[in-house]
Amino acid sequence: MPQPFRSITTQVTEHLRTHLLQGRWQGALPGRDQLASELGVNRKTVEAALRQLEKEKILINPGKGKRRRIKPGATRASNSLRVALLLATSSDQSWEVISEILHRLRQAGHDAFYAEKTLEDLGMKPSRVASLVSRTTADVWLVVAASREVLEWFIASSLPTLAIFGRILELNIPAVAPKKIPPLLDATRTLLKLGHRRIALINRPRRRRPQPGVPEQAYLDELKAHGIQPNAYHMPEWDETLTSFHAMLEALFRVTPPTALIVDEAEFFVAVMQFCLGRRLRVPEDISLICTDDHPVFTWCQPKVAHIAWDYAPVIRRVLQWVENIRQGRPDTRQTFTAARFVPGGTVAGPVR
């Protein structure tokens, strides 16, 4: 059902109201110009929103040139939490599962917000994560797709932390993620049965370093079980930069081009597709491609993209449940894995003989 149109003033009013009632500010609100800059809107819009909040008796206007004061009692409920989401990259904000987690936490009355820096901004370095955490007021942390080193830091810190995806299988930390090992092996076996031998898995450095993660090692072990001695060709090294990514692809295709690629994450899958297009490689006639995630853009692809699919809803429910358990003082250290499956598609075929 289409959602009713909400003006920008209404959206700003709702945003400010939510944060006021949850206690983000105490005593007085920041000035109009500061709020306009923070929200990326003009001053007239902020002024209109502030006047509406005055009508609702949430704010008090002490007069010209003075900051609005917050009416006593208009603070967040004492049993709600301030929940920080530490994202892997800024693009995670547009990911449906992440934005829905933020929305649902706020609906539940919590003051949920994105940390001012992402793990990518911080270079995935624990020392820089520690600095960010020290200057951020939060009751609990939700950490998205973190490296093993970052998660080890949160474990040592004893801060209430839930890992969402990331290098969780090797660590004792509360976590939620799709169970990707079975569908990854299913995808690998599909390629092997079709006759592919030159298969490469392209993934982020944090999935390979300091050693391959559990799913990645399962993939390498599957190759070995089929008589393929895995080496750097089958999971190539690259640093997380645009230059290094494309240099890796150029090197991979220079001498003995792969006949199949399994690409971790949709954004890299699109980049690989563009690379293949530039080399006039046909999919799947010249090269087979599989993505380890689903993405709405795949709906518009013909042929259908072979990928790993999983339901967001159980992940969202688990996050909300964990935060509620922490709010009530109940220990919750479980790792929860949701079902995932390999979805065959038209981007996979047997290698050209």
Quick tags:
Rossmann fold, alpha/beta, elongated, 3 domains, single chain, 353 residues, 5-stranded mixed sheet
What is the radius of gyration computed over CA atoms, rounded to a whole number of angstroms? 24 Å
Low-confidence segments: none
- Which architecture of the largest domain does the CATH hierarchy give at level 2? 3-Layer(aba) Sandwich
Helix content: 25-40%
Number of domains: 3
Number of helices, where a helix is a run of at least 4 consecutive DSSP H or I residues: 11
Shape: elongated
Explain how this protein is built.
This protein is an alpha/beta fold and 353 residues long. The chain has three domains: 8-70, Arc Repressor Mutant, subunit A; 82-173, Rossmann fold, CATH 3.40.50; 181-310, 3-Layer(aba) Sandwich (Rossmann fold), CATH 3.40.50. The chain has helices at 8-21, 32-39, 43-55, 96-107, 126-134, 148-157, 181-193, 214-225, 242-254, 266-278, 312-327, and strands spanning 59-60, 69-70, 82-86, 111-114, 140-144, 161-164, 175-178, 199-202, 260-263, 288-291, 306-310, 335-338, 340-343. It has a six-stranded parallel β-sheet, with helices on both faces. Strands 8-9-10-11-13 form a five-stranded mixed β-sheet, with helices on both faces. α6 links the parallel β5 (140-144) and β6 (161-164). It starts with 7 loop residues before the first helix and ends in a 10-residue tail after the last strand. The model has no long low-confidence stretch (mean pLDDT 92).
